[in-house]
Amino acid sequence: MHLPSWNVLIQVIIIGILTGGVYALMATGLTLIFGVMRVINVAHGAFLIFSAYISYWMFTIFGLDPFLSIIVSVPVLFLIGLIFQRFVLSRVKGDPGLGVLLTFAMALTLEGVMGSLWESTGRSIRTAYTSEVLAIELSGLTLRLPWVRIGGLVAAAIALAAIYFFLKNTNLGRAIRATIQNRSAAQLMGVNVESVQALTFGLGLATVAGGGALFSLIWTFNSGSHEEWISKMLSIIVLGGMSSLPGTFLAALIMGVTESVAAVVMTSYLSPIVFYLILFLTLIFRPQGLFGVRIREG
Amino acid sequence: MELLRRWWKPIALLTLLAYPWIYRAPYYHLLGFNVLLFAMMATSWNIMGGYTGYKSLGHSAFYGLGAYLVAVAANELGWNPLVSAPFLAVIVALVAVLLGWIMLRTSGSAFVISTIAMLLIFRLVALNLREITKGAPGLSQPLPPWSPEFSRMPFYYYILFWLLIALFISWYIRRSRFGLGLVAIRDDEGKAEMVGVNTTLYKVLAFGISAYFVALGGGVWSYFTSHISPVFAFDIIVGVDMILMTMLGGLGTLWGPVLGAFILVPAGDFILFTFGSNTIYLAIIGGLMMLVIIFMPRGILPTIAEWIENRRAPRIAHEGAHSMAEMYDQSKGKTVAEDESSHERTASH
Amino acid sequence: MSELLHTDRVSRRFGGIQAVKDCNVSVQTGSITGLIGPNGSGKTTLFNLITGVYIPDEGEIFFEGKKITNLPPSKICHQGLSRTFQITRLFWEMTVLENMIVPIRQVGFRSLLGPNMFRYEIDRAMGLLERVGLTHLKDEPARKLSFGQQKLLEFAAILMADPIMVMLDEPAGGVNPTMIRFIMKLIQDLNREGVTFLVVEHNMGVVMELCDHMIVLDQGTKLAEGPPAVIQINPAVLDAYLGT
């Protein structure tokens, strides 16, 4: 363990915030899905990788920029989510542990399919602007920030603002929020919970498709990477209180910064343990996270 | 039929005892060993996941820990793995009891997720404690002293012996008051606690016991393969296999996990041989698991039992009910319950 | 008469709602005490506080002179305090007889490892089932019983733990008049055999006839108490029920 200089530390924190923004977009869908369905979608990481592969394909085959590939991946994942909830997940009732097992099985299936399609080689997208860096002089400090990271944060912020607007101002958005707050009351007020659930799952996967496009620009991935990423996203939403969107956003920033500091303070080999420990300890000792309510099923 | 019911156990046992002499090719010994190993571990998982209803996805943590303890003890202290494994597994069971003590504050999906997190922590620690585990490349241990052509037979009989013990324990628990309490916890934990079942103690003990045979399996496996590394020792798929076998055969039944292992281990080998690819194997077991959860969540044995039950004259529960017990409900008086349950949602101790 | 149970200024809040506030109630040994109050007055919350489902924010609870405030529900059951639920809770996958065997008061390691049904337990269980008229259903899964039968089974099962005091949450809720009669008779018989009762009930006829003492809750605190005849004409009580 060693302590970095101030110069490095500030740089690392800013990178952490930029990363955290992308994390927020990736984890938002997970929060929405848990909020409405009370199911932890363990396949979220696999869907993230899957949409990153779509971006990768769009880029290598058609030369489509990852920022633009969302026109393909968002509708595709939306549909998959709709179908998965409507025909698969909705059949499991009662035991919430079973829902986790089912989505976990989905993740394995997807991992297997992706591994067969794209092999286990690590993939990443290198665009013309991938290694471009923004250098800022700040009273003697030089900050070097990769443009993809900045673009990632901006895109994530736009997407999150759109989701926020959607939830606040549309009927479906209101129905979703009502279902999150009180399922039986929402049902009494005439919300068709079945279709809200299906649409929410679709929406949740659509957001992860957006996250996946940014993801493919920044990180290297293969079919097995979902395990690492689902634990990151889980620790974010658990810390954020499971069904609270502002909580998720804040927790994502916290985890982004924590991770990037941990990577320089510890060996980068060991740094993921920060996520695992936070996930483990939060679940057990503060299941309500930073803000939200306690995870209670039934 | 009656004859079969009475004699199938001795017949099955004799068949298993004779098997390595009938099928003498090394592959068959490997297959036999794997079937018995997974039958034992699935039986063990079932005590927690089936009887108690707490489905752990992280039992590979105990498998890996058992494997490493046995390997390190063999290398550093010269302990014979087949002797040390049952004792070292006790240590793992104690670790599980300690972890269980804190993890079993959670339930439902939070519990499942916390077991995944536990496994990932174990794996990462194994990767990083290089002085002990030699890190990612892994750890070798001495080969068994007996001649290689015959090398798998002792393992086969050894694990058969422990499978029988595990089955005995599973059977004994199910018919003890302890087991009744576990099933009560699965049905309605709050109610069980309320009628005097010390649910924390029961769950923690069940968790420890269910870790024991998995750890033992890991220890034997590490000697069997003679080389272990964190990625394989702490592979989540090992735990998934146990779950899938149990759920396919019959969750919470005595023989279900065994049946599941006898079906899935050969099937898994068949898939690996046919496609020669790990990823297709993953896709298939993932898909199979989804199918089992959706269409047959109780597994083969209970489904068959129900089918037989229904073919016999279907008895109606209320038939001949007492006059005063006959009545029917009008309403269940929901109003107060409703505001009570919304309290509960925001409540925390 | 001596005091069997009492709560000393017990409070519990949920988020912004003060469900129970500075609540003092006491139950005399050998009594059938009624606990009434309008919807949301905190009756069920008080039940949950006494049986250890919730831990009070403030205040203490005593049973037989011993403090039980922070004990887990199972320990409280071992002390001899059992309850039923407003919405019947049984072990649905178990048979009727198994449902009878689960409740226990004293457990050592020996009995933990013993068989799940001792002969004497079965005899006792069958005796109690006989009393509620469910003997012939002993091997049926609990989920197959009718609503009324489930209610009786829940009642009979908690008696297996040999309780000193039984708390009933709406024993007459949702059952027909014949069944109500039967349950009332059962309560009175058991009371004569020495079991103390604390009963939450909405059906005023039942409460008035059954109870020898009544406690009225309103907005989480005790509004009044006394014999049924006195409570019936207490203006504050009438106000609480009709006023708002």
Describe this structure in words.
The complex is a heterotrimer of chains A (298), B (349) and C (244). By secondary structure, chain A is mainly α. Chain A contains 11 helices and 2 strands, in the order ααααββααααααα. Chain A has helices at residues 6-37, 44-62, 70-88, 96-118, 147-169, 171-181, 183-188, 193-218, 226-239, 245-265, 273-285; strands at 133-138, 141-146. Chain A has a two-stranded antiparallel ribbon with strand order 1-2. By secondary structure, chain B is an all-alpha fold. Chain B contains 16 helices and 2 strands. Chain B has helices spanning 2-22, 26-52, 60-77, 81-103, 108-128, 130-133, 152-174, 177-187, 189-194, 199-225, 230-233, 236-249, 256-275, 278-295, 300-311, 334-346; strands at residues 139-140, 227-228. A two-stranded antiparallel ribbon of chain B has the order 1-2. In chain B, helix 2 crosses helix 13 (256-275), helix 7 (152-174) packs antiparallel against helix 10 and helix 12 crosses helix 13. Chain C is an alpha/beta fold. Helix content of chain C is 36%, strand content 25%. Chain C is built from 10 helices and 11 strands. Chain C has helices spanning 43-50, 73-79, 96-101, 109-113, 119-132, 147-159, 177-192, 204-210, 228-232, 235-242, and strands at 3-14, 17-23, 26-28, 32-36, 58-63, 66-67, 81-83, 165-169, 196-200, 213-218, 221-226. In chain C, the strands form 2 sheets. In chain C, strands 7-8-9-4-10-11 form a 6-stranded mixed beta sheet, with helices on both faces. In chain C, strand 5 and strand 6 (66-67) form a beta hairpin. In chain C, helix 5 crosses helix 6 (147-159). Chain C is globular and about 55 Å long. The mean pLDDT of chain C is 88. At the B-C interface, helix 8, helix 9 and helix 16 of B face helix 1, helix 2, helix 4, helix 6 and helix 7 of C.
